[in-house]
Specification:
Elements: E1 2-10, H1 22-26, H2 41-52, E2 54-60, H3 61-70, H4 75-78, H5 81-88, E3 91-94, E4 106-109, H6 113-122, E5 127-131, H7 134-142, E6 148-154, E7 174-181, E8 187-193
Parallel strand pairs: 1-5, 1-6, 2-3, 2-5, 3-4
Antiparallel strand pairs: 6-8, 7-8
Helix pairs in contact: 2-5
Length: 202
């Protein structure tokens, strides 16, 4: 399977609080919910299609627990296209502390997570999808495990919050393989990692 990451980010790279988030507000982040107003029928249909083409899902613990409590629990969400896709496919969560995931067809990956992810990638199939899961995304990129990065760039500058990429992290060259604009301004950018960047020397 190819490991693909799909995430929503602001123009200034923030991924925190794309939807309304009470935990974020309790932690002092008050600029949540920045993505929802920019989705239209076309961009929403695209996201639905992404979930439908998954063979399995991989999450970090925080995103897993959020999805389990929403897409996996709330009837209206569980019966929507995304909820049905999540419910019908195997789910994996990378965590050293989670012991009872609760959501059906979920396996906890602990110990040598890199080896476990490589084993999943070696299985036949289409996509092992990661959604959200910022800490996991950064770790997967750092360990060379990402095959494709799908960024949905939302036309807003939030000015604060957790960013997708750290201020100091590994450098990665990216090949742009697809770009698409949606009616309300969201831009899809699909990249494939291509080793380390080349830097000008003269």
């Amino acid at each position: 399977m190819r490991l693909t990451i799909t995430t929503q980010v602001t123009v200034d790279g923030v991924m925190q609080g794309n939807g309304p988030s009470e935990p974020d507000r309790q932690a002092g982040f008050e600029r949540d919910g920045w993505a929802m107003a920019h989705f239209d029928d076309e961009s929403a249909a695209y996201v639905d299609q992404v979930y439908q083409r998954a063979d399995a899902f991989l999450f970090g613990r925080w995103t897993y627990e959020f999805f389990a409590a929403t897409w996996g629990t709330i009837d209206e969400m569980a019966h929507a296209a995304i909820g049905r896709a999540l419910g019908a496919r195997p789910k994996y969560v990378a965590s050293s502390t989670l012991t009872d995931p609760g959501w059906a067809d979920t396996t906890v990956l602990s110990g040598d997570v890199a080896a476990a992810v490589r084993e999943l990638k070696a299985r036949p199939g289409g996509e092992l999808q990661v959604h959200g899961s910022g800490v996991l995304t950064r770790w997967l990129l750092e360990n060379g495990l990402v095959d494709e990065l799908n960024l949905l760039v939302v036309p807003v500058v939030v000015g604060q919050g957790t960013r997708l990429f750290p201020d100091a992290g590994p450098d990665v060259a990216l090949d742009l393989v697809e770009a698409r604009a949606f009616p309300k301004g969201i831009i899809l950018q699909v990249y494939r990692p291509a080793g380390r960047p080349r830097y000008a020397t003269g």
